[in-house]
Amino acid sequence: MRKVSLITALVFAAISTNVIAADGKITFNGEIVKQSCTVEGGNKDKTVTLPKVSAVSLKEAGNVTGTTPFTIELSNCNASETITDVGLSFVGPNIDLNTKTLKTEGIGATTAKNVNIALYNQDDNLIKLGLDKDDQNVQYAKIASDKAQLNYFARYYALGQAEPGLVETNVDFEIIYK
């Protein structure tokens, strides 16, 4: 029985090598880096509270208000010759792919209507959520003394005439290196 299995395996191997014809080749490249920045304590699960604003200030799609700065601090970032900067890429299921903002649906009967949350980098450019990290408008910070500070802004973003209510959403982030 064992000889039959071995013979069968050899026959299939011989047949399969003769049948495969290569029309091209794909080469995969990558790099594993030593960096492993750590998100500082309270920055790992951070809550950013935007101010109370009037629905009147969000009466047309694209209106923004309630600018709220926030910071994510990283530590244990060992800069090297190839890695000197660090940033965050934002991901998650709450992203509105049409507006590149965060959906605020699903917190009950008191949910505000027609309002999302938009994120901006420290240069006040919209972070385009839902895109690849290279296309999001990610901003990088220099690693200094094994630390980095990443500054952002959050704003209410109108999808149309806003209706009063509570706003809540969340987004995950991943540390990226440059």
From TrEMBL:
Subcellular location: Fimbrium
Predominant place of localization: other
Database matches in InterPro entries: Adhesion_dom_fimbrial, Adhesion_dom_fimbrial_sf, Adhesion_dom_sf, Bact_Fimbrial_Adh_Pro
Signal peptide positions (record): 1-21
Record flagged with keyword ATP-binding: no
Top-rank taxon: Bacteria
Record domain Fimbrial-type adhesion: where: 26-178
Pfam family, one: Fimbrial
The entry's keywords: Fimbrium, Signal
Family from the record: Belongs to the fimbrial protein family.
The protein's name: Type 1 fimbrial protein
